[in-house]
Recover the amino acids of this structure.
């Protein structure tokens, strides 16, 4: 969209990769969630990856403005031999306007299943900072940006990716992050906290480069100059 998401907007992404297909998907700019009075905006992603396919979804950050309400639902169907790198960066708001977790609600859900429709992984995050503050220890602490990288891949491929990503996160003093294995041997998840969107974006690209190098055996492309 050329402008911000406004209340009543309902966006839908339908992404399907056939057997052996490779793709990289990004966005041209950050997704801004405008202030809202009565309604909400939403994004539903349906992602299907066939055998041997490979997808990188590396969008620009999401910026929830004051009083916004947003629902994001990601449904993924993935073959055991496919790989998906799916990233998400959520800012605290427009800091230059004094917005710091001043939105009403973020509801972020993800569900992963195999082609036989057996659930592999599910996660739901409901954030209502006006009802319960999140700037304290155990949630955000002193950080104001959180990001997630979902790496769905085979158990064999997950091990070297885990090792490389763990080293990257351990040696990166500009962010606070961790990596863990997902259930049902379906891959890995990385959670990152930080205060500098540029440094988090670079870390996401580095993680994506690790996955691309291990799975696709290709180097990461140079970032676009306008970023």
């Amino acid at each position: 969209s050329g402008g911000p998401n406004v209340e009543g907007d309902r966006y839908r992404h339908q992404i399907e990769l056939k057997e052996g297909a490779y793709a990289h998907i990004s966005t041209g700019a950050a997704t801004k969630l405008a202030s809202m009075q009565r309604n909400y905006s939403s994004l539903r992603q349906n992602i299907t990856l066939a055998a041997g396919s490979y997808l990188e979804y590396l969008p620009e950050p999401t910026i929830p403005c004051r009083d916004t309400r947003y629902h994001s639902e990601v449904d993924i169907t993935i073959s055991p031999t496919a790989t998906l790198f799916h990233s998400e960066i959520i800012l605290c708001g427009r800091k230059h306007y004094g917005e710091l977790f001043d939105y009403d609600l973020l509801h972020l859900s993800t569900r992963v299943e195999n082609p036989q429709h057996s659930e592999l992984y599910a996660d739901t995050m409901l954030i209502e900072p006006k009802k319960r503050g999140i700037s304290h220890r155990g949630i955000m602490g002193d950080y104001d940006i959180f990001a997630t990288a979902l790496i769905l891949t085979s158990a064999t491929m997950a091990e070297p990716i885990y090792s490389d990503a763990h080293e990257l996160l351990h040696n990166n003093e500009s962010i606070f992050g961790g990596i863990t294995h997902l259930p049902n041997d379906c891959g890995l998840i990385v959670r990152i906290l930080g205060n500098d969107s540029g440094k988090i974006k670079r870390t996401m690209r580095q993680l994506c480069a690790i996955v691309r190098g291990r799975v696709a055996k290709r180097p990461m492309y140079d970032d676009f100059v306008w970023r």
Notes: The longest strand covers residues 69-78. The CA atoms of residues 176 and 193 lie 5 Å apart.
